[in-house]
Structures are given as structure tokens and as C-alpha cells.
């Protein structure tokens, strides 16, 4: 299994970096809305320096592929691609929704998680995941972007935990699904969990060259307000 992986994520308000070297993980994490571009590279330098590892000594570079903020996802993949190009590293995209499920497991040992991120425009990014015996995650309800009232999980039996900002933004959704939310719960993905998931992705052969790495927006189109006189 790959032993040296760097992960970066700026897909949400949270900005985070993690470096896995063997069984050790070094992390930097900060809530920094609109400051990702100034925060992320110093975080990368910090974890590499603390580990005494050069970028070109890594085995792979993981990134939060989304879903999340359109701008945040683009910033994350752009920075990750720049680092990967410079060091000739393969890249692995990691779902922010699955990363939050992994964080729930890391913090509470919960093995069934429904993740939902506030997608604005009265919508959520949502998916449902269950931990497998090997430590990877099975997709129960595929990732989607939709209005909260239209979300119908494929599995409702058993004990399910929630993760993500979507539950705070739309508390009626949790009430309808008979799920309880906590202000102390997992709200945003962290790179610490992405390095764990990246190892499984590498094992599945999902690594790609830097120029082939791509984000996941879920929305087919993004509508921008056009300035007067422009097409």
C-alpha cells in the first residue's frame, strides 16, 4: 500500500492539508472562507517540512474533487495539479462527501453516514455511505445535487449518522428522515480523512496523470449573471 500521500482540500469553507508517511499523519486545518489561495501552499510547506519529506519523494497527491463550492473545488484542483506537475506525481480525487463519512467514523466509530453539503440555490449535495469490512466505503445512495425535499435515501434501516453543513442549513430534512443532528457534529471535510481514502483509490487503480485530474461539480451547468451588453 502506498506510504507517502499528500492531500489538499479547499472544496468548502474549511481549508486543509494532510501528509501520510507510513502510519503517521501530519495535518493542518483552518476555517478560512475566501482565503484558500493564501493559506493552502504554506500549509503544504509546513507538513512537508515537519515530516522532512520533499514533494518529489511522495507516491501520490490526493485532492478534494468535490462536490462543494465551485470556486473552492477549482482552487483545490488547480493547486494540486501545479504541485503534481512540478514533482511528476500521480493524482487521486477524493469525494468530499465520503471524506466526511470517514471523519464520522474516525471521531465516533459510526459506520453508516448520510453526508449533505449546503449547495446554495436551495439545494444540497448529498450521498449515503456504509463502511465495508476492509475499511473502504460502499456507496448506498449515489451522490446527487437536489432540493432537500426531493432526497429519498435508498436505505433507511439501521442507525445512520449525519455529516455536513446541509443538515444545519435545512433542519427539516433531518426531521423528515428521523435523523438527529448535533452542533458538535462533522460539518466539513478534512484532508486527514482523504489520505486514508486515497490509499483505497490507488489500490483500485484510480490514479491519473496531473493533466487528466478532474473535479466533480454534480451540477451540469453553472449559471452566471451576464453583464449588460455581453453574451
UniProtKB/TrEMBL annotation:
Keyword terms: Cytoplasm, Transferase, tRNA processing
Domain Gcp-like: 30-152
Molecular functions per Gene Ontology: transferase activity
CDD domains given in the database record: ASKHA_NBD_TsaB
Gene3D superfamilies in the record: 3.30.420.40
UniProt subcellular location: Cytoplasm
Domain of life of the organism encoding this protein: Bacteria
One Pfam family, short name: TsaD
GO process annotations (BP): tRNA threonylcarbamoyladenosine modification
GO-annotated cellular components: cytosol
Main location: cytoplasm
Family: Belongs to the KAE1 / TsaD family. TsaB subfamily.
Name listed for the protein in its UniProt record: tRNA threonylcarbamoyladenosine biosynthesis protein TsaB
Organism: Veronia nyctiphanis
Gene name linked to the record: tsaB
Amino acid at each position: 500500500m502506498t506510504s507517502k500521500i499528500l492531500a489538499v482540500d479547499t472544496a468548502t469553507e474549511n481549508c486543509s492539508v494532510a501528509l501520510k508517511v507510513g502510519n503517521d499523519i501530519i495535518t493542518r486545518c483552518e476555517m478560512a472562507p475566501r482565503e484558500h489561495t493564501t493559506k493552502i501552499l504554506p500549509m503544504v510547506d509546513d507538513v512537508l517540512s515537519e515530516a522532512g519529506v520533499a514533494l518529489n519523494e511522495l507516491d501520490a497527491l490526493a485532492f478534494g474533487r468535490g462536490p462543494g463550492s465551485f470556486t473552492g473545488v477549482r482552487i483545490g484542483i488547480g493547486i494540486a495539479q501545479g504541485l503534481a506537475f512540478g514533482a511528476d506525481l500521480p493524482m487521486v480525487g477524493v469525494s468530499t462527501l465520503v471524506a466526511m463519512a470517514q471523519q464520522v467514523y474516525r471521531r465516533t466509530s459510526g459506520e453508516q453516514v448520510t453526508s449533505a453539503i449546503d449547495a446554495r440555490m436551495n439545494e444540497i449535495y448529498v450521498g449515503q455511505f456504509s463502511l465495508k469490512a476492509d475499511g473502504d466505503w460502499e456507496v448506498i445512495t449515489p451522490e446527487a445535487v437536489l432540493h432537500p425535499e426531493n432526497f429519498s435515501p435508498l436505505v433507511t434501516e439501521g442507525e445512520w449518522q449525519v455529516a455536513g453543513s446541509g443538515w444545519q442549513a435545512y433542519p427539516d430534512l433531518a426531521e423528515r428522515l428521523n435523523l438527529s443532528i448535533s452542533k458538535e457534529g462533522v460539518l466539513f471535510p478534512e484532508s486527514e480523512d482523504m489520505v486514508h481514502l486515497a490509499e483505497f483509490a490507488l489500490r483500485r487503480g484510480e490514479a491519473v496523470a496531473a493533466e487528466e485530474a478532474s473535479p466533480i461539480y454534480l451540477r451540469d451547468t453553472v449559471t452566471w449573471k451576464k453583464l449588460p451588453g455581453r453574451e
